[in-house]
Amino acid sequence: MDDDYNASHSRHLLDFYSVNLTNQMVREQYTTTTPGTSLERPKNEYVYKIGIYGWRKRCLYLFVLLLLIILVVNFSLTIWILKVMWFSPTGMGHLRVTKEGLRLEGESEFLFPLYAKEIHSRVDSSLLLQSTHNVTVNARNSNGEVTGRLNVGPKMVEFHGQQFQINSKDGKPLFTVDENEVVIGTDKLRVTGPEGALFEHSVETPLVKAEAFKQLRLESPTRSLSMDAPRGINIKAQAGNIEALSQMDIKLQSSDGVLLLDAETVRLPKLPEGTRGGSGISQGLYEICVCPDGKLYLSVAGVGSTCQEYSRVCQ
Fold this sequence. Notes:
- There is one protein chain.
- By secondary structure, the chain is an alpha+beta fold.
- The chain has helices at residues 2-29, 55-84; strands at residues 87-88, 91-92, 95-98, 101-104, 135-140, 146-152, 157-160, 164-167, 173-177, 182-184, 286-290, 296-300.
- Among the domains are: 160-188, no CATH class; 273-315, no CATH class.
- The chain contains two helices and twelve strands.
- Strand 2 (91-92) and strand 3 (95-98) form a beta hairpin.
- Belongs to the sarcoglycan beta/delta/gamma/zeta family.
């Protein structure tokens, strides 16, 4: 019985000291006073302050103020950009977004390459592409390789591609260029330069004629001039003369046909006159004589033929 009593008494003492110790710790950490009470305040060394004080509090306020300033500046810049760039629900500035694509009004400057499937102007105005250096238009395939290029520079217009072609409004080819040939599909090719047209190689054409009331001149300054046609060459001057001038020989040759001089008057003003041993009587009339080699000369006409008498010119 004594042992049970001692054990029970020990447990009661232990519970009592535990409760007192707990109450003391609570009083040390938190103090609650109500009006009309006379509880003594605990000493300062047992009071713990909750919150941010000192330089940490000042830094926090400074950081919050800095965030507010940045927010105001960002909002002001956003309003300024929206006003300067003319943002609207339909687009930005002169740029309008429509169901057909982008519509740009007025003059615009592109600082980097422009990629587009189609570019066209308004119905009532023309399309102008302008650059301080050059304007380059590239066409690429599916692999990104350049298949055609048009470069408009300050001194020349350059095209790179397999074929260059200019068509009329009806789709008729007017001018076609490739590696093999140049085809001009117009009814007439007109050269208005003072020096005419210069061809380094042969020219194939069905007709060569001059402009009305102008002269046609075919010239080869340092080489020969040759005209070939399988079915004939026709040279015609309907209102003027035809002149063939040469420093050397002029040959008119027909292999299978004849040489026909069809005119009311045929003149040979510089044929040489034949001479004979004695002086003859000339009445201003001559006959044309032919040497065996085909050379022509004049002989004073007489009652009969005098070619035999003046045949010394053939020697």
